[in-house]
Q: What sequence folds into this?
């Protein structure tokens, strides 16, 4: 590691020798320099790239840094990132990124953007590159929403109480509307669709597909996450009705994202879902040993896998709960996804 930065300071190795990583926090604080523009960092990268193969690891949620991806790639520098903002941003930026990578034979690795540690992107890329065709992708792409609907279940739990508890346990964003608005799932589907070659417009342009928000209209303007949670009990009836309707058909409520390639249909929303047989042991709203929750299920149907057999299935615990308090959410598995990208870079470097 020859350069490390947060949003305000950066620490660069003057002689391009590796920084003393165990001490990075102290070194960044004491010896780092203030910076106001990513151009400063880009200038360092430019000099360093003349000496060695470089990888930029963008672990921010910044909108700004992805705008530099085309320039970074054109400098001959690879990028690895869990940041969804670039690969799910405007189609213009996405195309620029692809063109820059092609022009300079560099790579943007983004495995962790969709499945954190699950090898979704590389699997899809391998399928496409080896001549397979992906017909359908379907899954539960949000660990938080999976947790919420597992807890909401088919019993008497109140939606508002489940969301409140999830927020208190730190499983939601500070404002749960950032989970309930479906935008994170929409970004993931955009990334998957683009990965298999679909042209999908993304924010700030409107998505070309519908996204069902779970935020009651009356609470869209709540000033804070707390105010939102406080107002949610008034809307429990709406969620009770949806659950009852699903239950009547022997189904479960799940927040699902799906892509049907042939019809170019992308959907993000709440569905009454009848788990296929091969998922029956996965999709049951239950706690299993050690209170582990099923979170992330991603299916990819390809021509080679869609011959009457089970489709390709990737699943993982997006969030694990041990006892009542010890929660290990997505950071560890996300780091695994980033490391798998780093290893791919180092194999070629
Ligand atoms: N955590 C997870 O479970 C998870 C799962 C999947 C994907 N991700 C993705 O991983 C990324 C990081 O998530 P996180 O939870 O670690 O976020 P975070 O806690 O907000 O950390 C982001 C870091 O990026 C730095 N940063 C922000 N803007 C920057 C800029 N313009 N230049 C340089 N540094 C900048 C921040 O610096 P300051 O400290 O100065 O603010 C901070 O250190 C996000 O894109 C997120 O969507 C995370």
A:
């Amino acid at each position: 590691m020859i350069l490390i930065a947060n949003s305000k300071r950066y620490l660069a190795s003057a002689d391009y020798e590796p920084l003393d990583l165990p001490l990075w926090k102290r070194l960044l604080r004491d010896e780092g320099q203030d910076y106001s523009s990513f151009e400063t960092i880009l200038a360092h990268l430019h000099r360093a790239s003349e000496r060695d193969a470089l990888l930029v690891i963008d672990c921010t949620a910044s909108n700004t840094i992805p705008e530099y991806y085309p320039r970074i790639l054109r400098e001959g520098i690879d990028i690895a990132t869990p940041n969804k903002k670039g690969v799910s941003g405007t189609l213009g930026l996405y195309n620029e990124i692809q063109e820059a990578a092609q022009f300079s034979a560099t790579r943007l690795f983004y495995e962790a953007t969709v499945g954190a540690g699950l090898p979704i992107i590389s699997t899809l890329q391998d399928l496409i590159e080896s001549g397979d065709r992906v017909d359908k992708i379907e899954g539960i792409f949000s660990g938080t929403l999976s947790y919420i609907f597992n807890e909401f279940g088919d019993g008497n739990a109140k939606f508002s109480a489940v969301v409140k508890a999830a927020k208190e346990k730190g499983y939601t964003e500070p404002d749960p509307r950032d989970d309930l608005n479906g935008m994170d799932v929409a970004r993931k589907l955009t990334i998957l669709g683009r990965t298999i070659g679909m042209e999908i417009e993304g924010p700030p342009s409107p998505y070309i597909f519908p996204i069902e928000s779970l935020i009651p209209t009356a609470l869209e303007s709540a000033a804070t996450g707390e105010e939102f949670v406080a107002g949610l009990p008034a809307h429990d009836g709406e969620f009770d009705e949806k659950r009852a309707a699903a239950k009547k058909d022997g189904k479960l409520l799940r927040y699902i994202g799906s892509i049907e390639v042939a019809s170019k249909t992308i959907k993000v929303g709440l569905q009454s879902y009848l788990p296929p047989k091969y998922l029956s042991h996965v999709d049951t709203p239950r706690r299993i040993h050690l209170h582990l929750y099923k979170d992330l299920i991603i299916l990819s149907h390809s021509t080679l896998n869609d011959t009457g057999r089970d489709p390709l299935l990737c699943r993982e615990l997006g969030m694990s709960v041990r006892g009542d308090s010890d929660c290990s959410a997505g950071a560890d598995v996300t780091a695994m996804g980033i490391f798998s990208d780093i290893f791919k870079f180092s194999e070629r470097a």
